[in-house]
Amino acid sequence: MDLRVRALESLLVEKGYVDPKALxxxxxxxxxxVGPHNGARVVAKAWADPKYRLWLLDDATAAIASLxxxxxxxxxxxxxxxxxxxHNMVVxxxxxxxxxxxxxxxxxxxxxxxxxxxxxxxxxxxxxxxGVTLPDDVExxxxxxxxxIRYLVVPERPGQTDGWTEEELAILVTRDSMxxxxxxxxxxRRPPAPS
Amino acid sequence: xxxxxDMGGMxxxxxxxxxxxxxxxxAAWERRAFALTLAMGGARVWxxxxxxxxxESLPPAQYLASSYYQIWVDGLITLMLERGLITREELAEGxxxxxxxxxxxxxxxxxxxxxxxxxxxxxxxxxxxxxxxVGDAVRTKVLNTPTHTRLPRYCRDKRGTxxxxxGAHVFADANARGQGExxxxxxxxxxxxxxxGSDTSAAAVHVDCWEPYLEAG
Lengths: 195, 217
Known about the structure:
The complex is a heterodimer. Chain A is of the alpha/beta class. Chain A is 44% helix and 12% strand. In chain A, strands 1-4 form a two-stranded parallel ribbon. Chain A has a two-stranded parallel sheet with strand order 2-3. Chain A is globular. In chain B, strands 1, 2, 3, 4, 5 and 6 form a six-stranded antiparallel sheet that branches. Chain B is α+β, with helices and mostly antiparallel strands. The model of chain B has no long low-confidence stretch (mean pLDDT 97). Chain B folds into two domains: 28-118, Nitrile hydratase, beta subunit (Cyclin A, domain 1); 123-216, SH3 type barrels (Roll).
């Protein structure tokens, strides 16, 4: 593959179809700048700020854009809130649709046949693969991203976090908790205040 | 198309196994393949649904045996060959024989940030009113579209309830054929039992459906 892609790139550069500097910039953007820390900030703000939470649940595209996250593969956003009664989990059975603007590029498992095939028929089995067990009375809702709507799960806020700042809360928000294959981290203790 | 990419509900693919360390890319060529695909997408010779159609039209055995970015590379090459942007001989040698084709846009480095920030919104104005409203009972049609479609096999001829309306969006099925007309887009909730009988642990599966997929339930 290495030689094949190199030949392809050389050819496309020679033809003037692509700019190698643009390719470098695209890679740098998604390797270093865009990632789940974006989504974690959105979730932490929704946990800390009731007005923002309502806005996010009502118009996620605008609420997320207000924090500076918009654009490619996040043009039309919907936020789904997990509670003690309802657990949401997101998949793309047909390809790999994923909210890049808030989570970055999807992990390999999200794009893999095991996840895409099983998430819609046996989501509890998939959760077990991640070591997550939900009580039987929790309603498990799966969301198959078949159009250009991108879904962000807002995980349940862990207990013992009263009074935490958004920055402190964001540390608890894992990527998997925003896909719905995990929960937010349970804090051992509040991080020490910066001196 | 009833292809192998349409995996929802298939069995025997095994467990989901997260990777240790989860590198975004696994080899240098994956980085370049990713960037080449995005840059050529920005050239506006084809649209996103045509990209998806090219990938899912790979021979089934090849699709299943390929890694994710291998599928991207093969899809990209298919699109470029089909549209006469490159030839097989050029690709084999990695150098130009024929003069370049005219393309609408070259994504140069100075355009990258703005293009990513803008993305490709798919909402469009559409005259008239949407046929369905939140709470309406609907049924997906029996469709076996031989070209690109976003109605998965597992939710055809199934009863559901509209839970969200999203306005009108570019209709993927038509867009893949180069026709951009928008259609009303809905999120439809299907009960797990409607889709799978008792052989499921899903309470419900939500699927985004354009109006041509639906009839009153």
